[in-house]
Amino acid sequence: MKMRSIIGAAYAAIAIATATSAAAHGTGETVTPHFQQTIPNIPGKSLVTLIVDYTPGGASPSHIHAKSAFIFGYVLSGKIESQVNDGPRRVYRAGESFYEPPGSRHPVSRNASKTMPAKLLAVFVVDAGEKELTTSVQQESSSRRIK
Hints:
- It contains two helices and eleven strands, in the order αβββββββββββα.
- The chain is α+β, with helices and mostly antiparallel strands.
- The chain has a single domain (3-146), classed as Jelly Rolls.
- The strands form three sheets. It has a five-stranded antiparallel β-sheet with strand order 1-2-10-4-7. Strands 8-3-11 form a three-stranded antiparallel β-sheet.
- Strand 5 and strand 6 form a beta hairpin.
- The longest helix has 21 residues, at 3-23.
- The protein is globular, with a radius of gyration of 15 Å.
- Residues 5-25 and 140-147 have low confidence and may be disordered.
């Protein structure tokens, strides 16, 4: 394995760990790293996938995605309500998908059901050196005040 691939894999592993810990502050959600790999024919890019399990009524905190992250969301089961940037809130059902352009704000990501669980596959195409896939809006506001 080339040194560049090893370094890219290490950065992706750090990104997964960061995304998992950042997203774990939600209520009723569990984020599990699923897959990560540098993309050999797109230098400097990695593919990272996460599974987000929502308990009935569970939600992710409002967050911002990495400036390099193009995200494809695919609902595996249940119904998920999502809002990207200032777009409309929409409920996606199992088998439906959506995307988020790089640097998007995600004010709403939650299970639309109070009685049934929901599961989402999040696929990130991101810079291999990206350290944080998501930052909670509260963390973003706090870091702006500190600077």
